[in-house]
Amino acid sequence: MLNNKIEMARIARLAKLSLLAEETDALLADLDDIIQVAQSIDDVRLTDYDCSEDAVSSELREDIDVASMPSETLLKSAAESRSGFFHAPNFRAVQSER
Predict the structure, then answer these.
(1) Per-residue confidence (pLDDT) for residue 2, from 0 to 100
(2) pLDDT at 50
(3) Sequence-distant (≥ 6) Cβ neighbours of residue 1 within 8 angstroms
């Protein structure tokens, strides 16, 4: 569990977040809840389940070829497209503008 705001500040810095004091408190509580849920997975009893290879099916479903939406229709909602594809700005160029 996260025990203090120093740990939360470190996590925020690693995630490149700038948080106000009240946001830090709220996020600290949310992350504590997430960690508790993740730790509760340890409490799941697996003794009732057969996890051997024989019990696990390796059969895959048959691939079914279905028509998709036309590219032209999809690209109408794009901010920008090039040569029939969605186009997004270069991530590094966007970062350098900040």
Answers:
(1) 58
(2) 66
(3) 32, 35, 36
In a domain, 22, yes or no: yes
The CA distance from 25 to 5, in Å, is: 8
**Within a domain: 27:** yes
Give the tens place of pLDDT for each residue, 37-89.
988 888 877 777 666 666 666 778 888 999 999 999 999 989 899 999 999 88
Distances (CA, A) of 22 to 18, 25, 95: 12, 5, 27
For residue 33, the enclosing domain spans 5-43
Q: Is residue 18 part of a domain?
A: yes
DSSP annotation string for 27-71: HHHHHHHHHHHHHHGGG---TTS--SGGGS----PPP-------H
